Amino acid sequence: MLTWCSFSSSLAAYLLGTYGITKEIAIKYEEKELKNPPELSVKPYKYFVQESLTKNIIGFIIEIVQPLNVIEDPDFIKMIKGFDKHYKVSCTKTIKSGISKIFEIGKNTLKNQLAQVRHISLTLDA
Q1: What distance lies between CA 39 and its chain's CA centroid?
Q2: What is the Cα–Cα distance from 28 to 13, expressed in whole angstroms?
Q3: Where in the sequence is the signal peptide annotated (predicted)?
Q4: d(Cα 100, Cα 82) in Å, to the nearest integer?
């Protein structure tokens, strides 16, 4: 933001002489800037991308029955960084929490499906 004083300064003279920017133009710009502040120039890594990749890693661990400590393996981290250098590999606690959430969702889905079943037929091969 530009701050204009009542006395002339070298900055004010420079802006006026070089770019034709007067005090009035600067005040209008400042008002516009306050109404619509600019976005951060350094944007944090997109949360949804981080979450999506973490869910994919959780799915990988579940589907091929990997131990949780696979995410701490340097070669695994190197592989993930090869896919996306900005991704921060989640800790074991986060992965364990994600697996628990998926388990609860699956359990509740199965309960709801079984609650709607009227008849069931079981066969036993002895």
Answers
A1: 17
A2: 18
A3: 1-20
A4: 28
**Residue 4 CA to chain centroid, in angstroms?**
40
Q: Where are the alpha helices (DSSP H) in the chain?
A: 10-14, 23-35, 47-63, 74-83, 92-115
CA distance 29 to 31: 5
Q: pLDDT, tens digit, for every residue of 21-54?
A: 777 887 787 777 777 766 655 555 677 788 889 9
CA 116 – CA 106 distance, rounded (Å): 16
What pTM value is reported for the model?
0.55
Structure tokens at 6: 């009542």
In contact, 61 and 94? CB cutoff 8 Å: no
Q: Give the 3-state secondary structure of residue 92.
A: helix
